[in-house]
């Protein structure tokens, strides 16, 4: 086991931000830490990366506690923070050289690593441009590049794609995947985007209100809903009377509405199709399609917490 958090807890005055979190990473894995804003993800990774001490609990790197001896982990750790940590009045290359020197790189070795990272993050052609003229996606890529200069064995990424365009997001996800496959880099990836975690991660921890509420492979987590249907209904027009009728049914466990698509969760033993069509007839609601969907991580999160991931 490469890294393990044991009963990790953090209090800020009267607030318990993280409550007895247990998780582990094996060498070469990409592990997702999934949860909404305020779930405690950033506080958890701040403790794991030795930035803040826990109130109680321990973090072990190769079975040795890092609470009192953080250097062993710090030397092989790369951090991609949620906030952009760059100097806007320096160029991309100047930023990388600065962070490289922090990692005690110099001379030909520093020049080589800066060139390698610029190529990896796709900014070779823009290396001499000031960061303040970069798009949000380019800044995010450079933010990642700064964490890779010393070839870390463990990379912690805290919501690295927040607020960027889909093209930049895809580039970052593909880069993370490539680093893992080609360099066997272990990655702890926090996000509140289900699709990112589904694409990247070998295993997933779902966190809410400071606690781990589910963990396992993607299939294991989806099997939490093995006893439930996810049914997607498309309607000509969403009516409040139909939604009210749905919400009044105890066998309907959750409802989400997006434009003219309504998604419901219900037990498999219930004939949910008959119920939906009965309610539609009573409320003069016209369906354009009704379909049973394969459970998604979003469905599991709704089931476990009663709210959507980005609520």
UniProtKB/TrEMBL annotation:
Top-level lineage group: Bacteria
InterPro entries on file: AAA+_ATPase, ABC_transporter-like_ATP-bd, ABC_transporter-like_CS, P-loop_NTPase
SMART domains: AAA
Keywords per UniProt: ATP-binding, Nucleotide-binding
Occurrences of domain ABC transporter (ranges): 3-234
Molecular-function annotations in GO: ATP binding; ATP hydrolysis activity
Matching Gene3D superfamilies: P-loop containing nucleotide triphosphate hydrolases
PANTHER family attached to this UniProt entry: LINEARMYCIN RESISTANCE ATP-BINDING PROTEIN LNRL
Descriptive protein name: ABC-2 type transport system ATP-binding protein
């Amino acid at each position: 086991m490469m890294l393990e958090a044991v009963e990790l807890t953090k209090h800020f005055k009267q607030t318990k931000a993280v409550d007895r979190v247990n998780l582990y990473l094996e060498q070469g894995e990409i592990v997702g830490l999934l949860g909404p804003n305020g779930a405690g993800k950033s506080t958890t990774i701040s403790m794991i990366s030795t930035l803040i001490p826990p109130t109680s609990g321990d973090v072990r790197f190769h079975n040795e506690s890092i609470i009192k001896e953080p250097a062993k982990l710090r030397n092989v750790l790369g951090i991609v923070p949620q906030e952009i940590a760059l100097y806007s009045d320096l160029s991309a290359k100047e930023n990388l050289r600065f962070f490289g020197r922090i990692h005690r790189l110099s001379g030909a070795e520093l020049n080589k690593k800066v060139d390698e990272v610029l190529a990896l993050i796709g900014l070779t052609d823009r290396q001499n441009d000031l960061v303040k003229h970069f798009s949000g996606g380019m800044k995010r890529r450079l933010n990642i590049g700064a964490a890779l200069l010393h070839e870390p064995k463990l990379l912690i990424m805290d919501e690295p794609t927040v607020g960027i365009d889909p093209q930049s997001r895809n580039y970052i996800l593909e880069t993370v995947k490539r680093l893992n496959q080609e360099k066997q880099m272990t990655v702890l990836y926090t996000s509140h985007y289900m699709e990112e975690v589904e694409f990247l991660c070998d295993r997933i921890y779902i966190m809410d209100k400071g606690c781990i509420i589910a963990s396992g492979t993607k299939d294991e987590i989806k099997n939490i809903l093995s006893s439930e249907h996810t049914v997607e209904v498309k309607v000509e027009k969403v009516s409040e009377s139909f939604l009210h009728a749905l919400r009044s049914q105890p066998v309907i466990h959750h409802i989400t509405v997006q434009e003219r698509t309504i998604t419901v969760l219900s037990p498999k033993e219930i004939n949910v199709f008959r119920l939906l069509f009965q309610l539609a007839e009573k409320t003069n609601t016209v369906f354009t399609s009704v379909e049973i969907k394969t459970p998604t991580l979003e469905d599991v999160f709704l089931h476990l917490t009663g709210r959507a991931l980005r609520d």
